[in-house]
User: Which sequence fits this backbone?
């Protein structure tokens, strides 16, 4: 019962259907998620999980476009969102120029931009030029160096008010949906109630209009540590290591390849 998503269906799902969002960085995995997830996000988290960097900041537009093309090719039926990497939307003109480039070079349905009130004018400029924008507020990984770390948001009354202002500003600027990351669940609930566009949570409790997880986190491929908000649906790392160990054993004792696997 899969149906391809579009902006109208996504907006209509508010108060109607919970949205399931997963990241993907390549065609192989995108194909696996294609008819299951409502949206696929090509997250700049790939700079950490796949490029092994300490944060998302060094991802480039070219790299994001390369991965987005792979995802769109592998999952042509999916609604694919591309993360605009750090430094590619520093002002209205740069942002629009770069988003037009993304639309020209990929089949991405939308882009995602981190920022609240501080970036509302940029989001407005994009949406008024026919770019579909997903917002991203709360804990914003592209702010890690300027904030001095990753901090859960919404713990003070002042921060709660700021987050609500951010959500309203992003909605007013024309975003079709907002990711709310690393926010106290009671505050995420208020944000979800105050805006009329779907709020997609990550580390923000279960009251939001949907959830997003990084695929390699939820499938257990990242072993170093498990953030509190991640649920492991597969022990990916141990399954892979067991399989590769078996392969090595078979190579060492010459049981691979067998006669049936020979020419
Ligand atoms: O880069 C990413 O994967 C993201 C999600 C965690 C929302 O931005
Ligand atoms: Na991201």
Assistant:
């Amino acid at each position: 019962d899969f149906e391809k998503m579009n902006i109208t269906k996504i907006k209509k799902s508010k108060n109607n259907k919970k949205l399931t969002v997963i990241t993907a960085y390549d065609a192989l995995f995108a194909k696996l998620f294609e008819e299951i997830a409502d949206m696929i996000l090509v997250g700049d988290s790939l700079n950490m999980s796949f490029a092994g960097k300490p944060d998302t900041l060094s991802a480039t537009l070219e790299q994001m476009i390369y991965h987005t093309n792979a995802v769109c090719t592998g999952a042509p039926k999916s609604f694919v969102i591309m993360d605009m990497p750090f430094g590619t939307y520093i002002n209205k003109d740069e942002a629009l120029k770069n988003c037009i480039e993304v639309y020209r070079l990929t089949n991405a349905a939308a882009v995602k931009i981190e920022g609240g009130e501080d970036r509302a004018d940029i989001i407005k400029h994009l949406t008024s030029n026919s770019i579909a924008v997903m917002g991203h507020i709360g804990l914003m990984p592209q702010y890690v160096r300027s904030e001095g770390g990753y901090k859960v948001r919404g713990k003070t009354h002042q921060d709660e008010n700021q987050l609500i202002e951010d959500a309203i500003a992003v909605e007013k600027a024309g975003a079709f949906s907002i990711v709310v990351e690393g926010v106290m669940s009671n505050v995420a609930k208020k944000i979800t109630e105050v805006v009329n566009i779907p709020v997609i949570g990550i580390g923000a409790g279960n009251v939001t209009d949907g959830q997003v997880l990084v695929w390699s986190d939820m499938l257990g491929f990242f072993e170093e540590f498990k953030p509190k908000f991640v649920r492991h649906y597969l022990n990916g790392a141990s399954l892979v290591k067991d399989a590769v160990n078996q392969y090595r054993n078979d190579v060492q004792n010459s049981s691979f390849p067998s006669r049936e696997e020979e020419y």
In short: The chain has a mean pLDDT of 97.
